[in-house]
């Protein structure tokens, strides 16, 4: 799967994409054939045409902040889309988008290519949004200074669903909000030692009885979902 990320601050991505699961997903050595993910960063500023390389201007009508201009973003998207024949699903990170949820992540993981646009300052001139008509995705009802962290979050959530990326093929399916966990919260987890600060691991987990362990986990999932996120049970 190809990820194109368009940003004014592409340097923000290096350490995240070069760590842990995201790094492994793009590592040709760890996969037969081509790796599940490839990341392509584009600096929107490279598409500025004036001599100061400016990409933003004050808003018409006055008010604080700067607005990202249409032309550099449009040119960047057009140029990047031509780099590969795979059609790109355009996505704009914006607090005004639909919330990123696990079912949406699952849908995006089926795409051959995602093109993510990270805004900054006051956001993008509305006309380039209209013209590009991207899927608009939000991280939640709060405002960040840029779309870079949201783009990294989206890439992380999608990449771990790609075949072969997590060590155990099925492990992504049993997390909170996932189909294997019936879209509930995950059950509690324990590891060695069996007693820590006088707290014991629930005996069922040490019983070796798979059916009982399975039933216990589902029950725990339901209990903690009812307690912490009753909205998920509806
Ligand atoms: N003026 C805009 C916010 C701009 S924040 C408004 O009030 O709606 C600057 C950039 O940060 C946005 O263009 C977007 O790319 C990113 N951003 C901020 N909060 C976000 C969120 N909750 N989800 C996704 N992207 C967000």
Give a structural overview:
Helix 4 links the parallel strand 5 and strand 6. The protein folds into 2 domains: 2-159, SPOUT methyltransferase, trefoil knot domain (Alpha/beta knot), CATH 3.40.1280; 171-233, tRNA(m1g37)methyltransferase, domain 2 (Trp Operon Repressor, Chain A, Orthogonal Bundle), CATH 1.10.1270.20. It contains 8 helices and 9 strands. The mean pLDDT is 96. A 5-stranded parallel beta sheet has the order 2-1-6-5-7, sandwiched between helices. It has a two-stranded antiparallel sheet with strand order 3-4. A two-stranded antiparallel ribbon has the order 8-9. The protein has helices spanning 14-17, 20-25, 70-81, 102-108, 126-132, 148-159, 203-206, 210-228, and strands at residues 2-7, 38-43, 56-57, 67-68, 89-99, 113-118, 135-138, 195-196, 199-200. It is elongated. It starts with a strand and ends in a 6-residue tail after the last helix. The protein has 234 residues and is α/β, with parallel strands linked by helices. S-adenosyl-L-homocysteine binds at residues 93-96, 118-120, 122-123, 138-140, 142-144, 146-147, 150.
Could you provide a short overview of the structure?
The chain has helices at residues 14-17, 20-25, 70-81, 102-108, 126-132, 148-159, 203-206, 210-228, and strands spanning 2-7, 38-43, 56-57, 67-68, 89-99, 113-118, 135-138, 195-196, 199-200. With 234 residues, the chain is α/β, with parallel strands linked by helices. It folds into two domains: 2-159, 3-Layer(aba) Sandwich (Alpha/beta knot); 171-233, Trp Operon Repressor, Chain A, CATH 1.10.1270.
